[in-house]
Amino acid sequence: MNKHLAPFVPRPFKSPETLPGSLTANVAASLLGSVGDVAMVLDPSGIILDVAIAEPELIARGFEELVGQHFFETLTVESQDKVVAMLADAANGTPARWRQVNHRIGGGDVPVRYLIVALGQEGRLIAIGRDMRSAAVMQQRLLQSQQSLERDYIRLRQAEARYRLLFDMAAEPVLIVDAGTRRIREANPAACRMFGLKENAAGDQQISSLVDPQDRDTFMAHLGAAEATDSVAPLMLRLRNGQGSAQFSARLFRQARTALLLVRVMTGVEPEGHEHDRALRDVVERMPDAFVVADRDLTILTANSAFVEMAEMSSIERVRGAKLGQWLGRPGIDLDLIVGQLREHDVVRNVAAVLITATGTQEEIEVSAVVAPTDGGDCYGFSIRNVGRRLRAIPVIDQQLPRSVEQLTELVGRMSLKEIVRESTDLIERLCIEAALSYTSDNRASAAEILGVSRQSLYSKLHRHGLGNLVGDANE
After folding, report:
1. Are strands 290-295 and 258-267 parallel, antiparallel or unpaired?
2. Distance CA 303, CA 191 (A)
3. Based on the number of CB atoms within 10 Å of its own CB, is 451 exposed (0-12), middle (13-18) or buried (19 or more)?
4. How many CB atoms lie within 10 A of CB 170?
5. What is the residue-wise DSSP string for 215-243?
6. C-alpha angle 159-160-164 in degrees, rounded to nearest 5
7. What is the pLDDT of residues 79-111, one digit of tens each?
8. What span, in angstroms and rounded, lies between the C-alpha atoms of 119 and 97?
9. DSSP state, 103?
10. Mind giving me the DSSP string for 59-87?
11. Which of 3, 21, 157, 217 is found 20 to 30 A from 13 (Cα to Cα)?
């Protein structure tokens, strides 16, 4: 049976006539004035006859000036009904109870918690009050903290909903595994379909049961390595029941002080019967020349160890996802020229360029590139060779000019300004064409692209300045 609890009733003294004895007026006044932060003596109509203040800050707020005013009129509108009820209860002898009101005083509101009791002399009342400003500040802070927690909770719920939707809609099988027990904690629908798991019963299985028994020890070693470092390469394993092979990749993360493993399963990575594909990848990885694969936006998809070493980066993870232009070529020249030739001819061979390392040093390199179509679109393969040690000395361009600067200035007075400017323009144009041809090893198509002119315009200028093989140009 449920025990009924009676409501709490204040318990007064049993012998108020004899205990605590007769109190003098001074003792009674001192006692009433020290019970709270402020005490007010009221007449039966509610006029404040006297005020005793124990809290110094209430004196500064002007509580001493309340003598002679009606207690009702010193309060805010929402507090007046409370005081009317308290005064009525005190006059009727109803047991008093504490109630909080707000004084409209000192240019603001002052919250005070009052207890009003009858004095028994001439119908007077005593209002004992406690300053609640500090409690109000704490309540405000508590309310702000609660609102902040609610906002954070809403943001977390929204983030959880987004990631849960991404987890469930991912076409790639993904498993959440307890790092301690190696049991599956969660599996997305793609993983359940692939391994025949029940979404509600996925946590009852060991992750090792998904692969062939002969590969389980290797799989457990791979998971252990993933707990120790983040740079563990994916592992190709055979699935259970002869379902083929898949590539497993694991990454450690922590949630609520629990170590978990995020295991991704990628199928169709390496078809069976193509042993030479793995050998080819191993050869490319061990090549002394750098090799880079990038998408059409020149974002690096993968690279071999030679490129990581040449770029002076710490690991391949720091290279993947970065722009190739961060290291290869001078801005706006080398890489733009190579990509332009790739898009036009699908292949580029032995283009001289520079590679800027992570420390800012420049290495003379030679680049060959090719366009490779894939299911996700075209990508670019770059072969990079360091030729700084065998680079021939750059041929010195013949700087013998048809006219020197002094000779041009001596023409002032002998020729018009228009003719002098034309002479200077021809001089600068010829120097730029010679520099472009020297830089591109007499590749006129590349020189025209660097200069920003068409090939026919470049050929015309070559004829006009007497540069190059005029017979060959005529045949073109």
Report:
1. unpaired
2. 30
3. middle
4. 14
5. GHHHHHHHHHHHHH-S-PPPEEEEBGGG-
6. 120
7. 888 888 888 888 887 787 888 888 888 777 888
8. 16
9. E
10. HHTTGGGGTTSBGGGGB-HHHHHHHHHHH
11. 3
Give the Cα-Cα-Cα angle 448, 452, 456 (nearest 5 degrees).
45
Locus of tokens 């004992």: 128
What is the Rg, in whole angstroms, of the alpha carbon atoms belonging to the chain?
A: 45
Q: Is 465 exposed, middle or buried (0-12, 13-18, 19+ CB in 10 A)?
A: middle
Residues of the chain with pLDDT > 90, as a percent, come to 6
Q: What is the dihedral of CA 135, 138, 140, 145, to 10 degrees?
A: -160
Task: Give the C-alpha separation, 436 to 447, whole Å.
Answer: 5
What pLDDT was estimated at residue 167? 85
Which phi and psi (to 5°) does residue 223 adopt?
-65, -40
How far apart are alpha carbons 81 and 76 in whole angstroms?
A: 10
Residue entry with tokens 């609640």 = 132
pLDDT at position 202 is 65
pTM for the model: 0.37
**What dihedral do alpha carbons 78, 82, 83, 89 form, nearest 10°?**
170
Residue with tokens 């004829």: 463
- Residue closest to 42 by CA, chosen among 71, 12, 18, 16: 71
DSSP 327: T
Q: In what order do the strands lie in the sheet with 258-267?
A: 184-187, 174-178, 258-267, 245-255, 235-238
Closest of 198, 152, 194, 153 to residue 171, by C-alpha: 194
428-432: Cβ within 8 A, 24+ apart: 429/461, 429/465, 430/465, 430/467, 431/401
* Tokens matching residue 306: 């030679």
- Residue 312: CB partners within 8 Å, gap ≥ 6? 357, 358, 359
For residues 41 and 115, what is the distance between their CA atoms, to the nearest angstrom?
12
Provide the token pair at 74.
């010193």
CB 370 within 8 A of CB 286: no
Please answer whether residues 211 and 239 qualify as being in contact, where contact means their C-beta atoms are separated by less than 8 angstroms.
yes
